[in-house]
Amino acid sequence: MKLEMKDSPGQLVAALKPISDVGGNIIAVIHQREPDSDHDTLDVQIVLELPEGRLENLVALLKEQGVHIQRIGEQRLLYKRTVILIGHLMHTDLSDTVDQIDSTGFAEVSELAMSMPAVKDRSSSRLTIKSVTKEDMEAALAILRRVSRQKSLLLIEPMEEIA
Amino acid sequence: MKIALIGLGSVGRGVAEMITKKDLGLTITGLADSKSGAMDSGGLDIPVLLANKKKQGYCGDPGLTALDIIKKADYDALVEVTPTNALSGEPAIGHIKAALARKKHVVTSNKGPIALANKELRAMAHKNGVALRYEATVAGAIPIMHTLEHGLAGNEILALYGVLNGTCNYILTRMAAEGLTYEQALMEAREMGYAEADPTYDVKGIDAAIKLVILANTIWGNGVTLRDVDCTGIDLLTPDALRLAEDEGCTIRLIAEAIPRKHILRVSPRIIEKNHPLVVDGTLNALTLETDMAKEITLIGRGAGSVETASAIIGDLLFIKDRYDGRA
């Protein structure tokens, strides 16, 4: 969300406190001062995770603090992984492969790029999967592994970020 | 220190040449190839024996076998660099046991014995009070074993990730850079001498898996074998797949990984960001270790080559020479 607040000491802390009060988790705070701005207000962007249904609560608390909310951009699915599938993708029902992920309710295929050479050749596709949590992503990848084995597709997984 | 060198292929020749050329305090007193042997406790004339090998196909006396040299020659450390047999480990296992039984140190680049009989051979070396070292079995010139044993001593190794097969890395580099098909890149690798006539071991990921087994047993002593590795090769990759990865600022590399806490022991082609430290070009090897104190450490270097592999073997020999100074 993008916030506008008075450029005076203590304002940022006042804006951040309600987030933890409603059980939210701050992922990033981006604060850029326009060099030629003569406003006495400050623009701050905050990326955060909130439990279901707490957003209205947070908005009310922020208003009480005199913070003006310029924009709320909601992003439901936080985790993103890209995989590549190689094989006879169409003959093995690609829409079923995608649906096996989408039908879970906790993960979905948000992007699909494909290249199909000659009809008999194996085709290659890149799938971007999104999910709410890391565990959901692991579960989605496990489904994809199982489906790939069943359909004799080569699944290329991303390198995990080193923890 | 006196050395018996068994095997005169590319690696054996590199070791013989470097020991002769450099003043390292090492003397070769026994030498054998697959057809002949030679020994002289005062030190062999290596240039003459290597010239013999070039001229007639064997270096010494056809009446002497490798085992004759191992059992009869006067030496302190055996260098076993015969070709790897990943299924039986022989004749190298027999060579190593014969030397250990005589209380001789052993240094090898041979993956077969270390992957198949590491525990037994280590126990035998320990019982006889000698060293068994195999730096050259994994990632060629990269001093991974020394790094684990000394540089990272006291660290808990949490995970390891590696590019351990130069042939696969060369093929993938060329597919990505030039849009070659797998078959074209393999053919090019053969012409460059980076791939063998039968590339199965390399391209199916088996060679990388064997190295992963050696590393896992060395680090964790967990007794894993080749059968425990979840192994996928690169032979079914398409140029389109590499292009699709490229569109996202990534590429594809064959990654060997071991993460005991997640029960992962796997060799597989992976999508990896191009600026990742494991993305090295051509036949290079790379290894990232994740540890509790040092955090991540990445080593990059040449994974093969005559003199490069000799570097690892000579490093092991000089370590033994220092450590066992009194009797070597």
What would your notes on this structure say?
The complex is a heterodimer of chains A (163) and B (328). Chain A is α+β, with helices and mostly antiparallel strands and 163 residues long. Chain A is built from four helices and eight strands, in the order βαββαββαββαβ. A four-stranded antiparallel beta sheet of chain A has the order 2-3-1-4, covered by helices on one side. The mean pLDDT of chain A is 83. Chain B has 328 residues and is an alpha/beta fold. In chain B, the strands form two sheets. Chain B has a six-stranded mixed beta sheet with strand order 3-2-1-4-5-6, sandwiched between helices. In chain B, strands 8-10-9-7-11-12 form a six-stranded mixed beta sheet. Chain B starts with a strand and ends in a 5-residue tail after the last helix. Chains A and B meet through strand 5, strand 7 and strand 8 of A and helix 11, strand 9 and strand 10 of B. Strand 8 of chain A pairs parallel with strand 10 of chain B, so a sheet runs across the interface.
Radius of gyration of chain B: 20 Å
Q: Report strand order across the widest sheet of chain A.
A: 2-3-1-4
Please, what is the oligomeric state? heterodimer
Helix/strand order of chain B, N-terminal first: EHEEHHEHEHEHEHHHHEHEEEEH
Characterize the overall form of chain B: globular
Number of separate strands of chain B? 12
CATH fold field value of the largest domain in chain A: Alpha-Beta Plaits
CATH class of the largest domain in chain B: Alpha Beta
Order of helices and strands of chain A: EHEEHEEHEEHE
Report the uncertain regions of chain B: none
Question: Hey, roughly how much beta strand do the residues of chain B contain?
Answer: 15-25%
Low-confidence sequence ranges of chain A: none
The main pleated sheet of chain A reads as:
4 strands, antiparallel
CATH architecture of the largest domain in chain B: 3-Layer(aba) Sandwich
How many DSSP E strands of chain A?
A: 8
Order of adjacent strands in the largest pleated sheet of chain B: 3-2-1-4-5-6
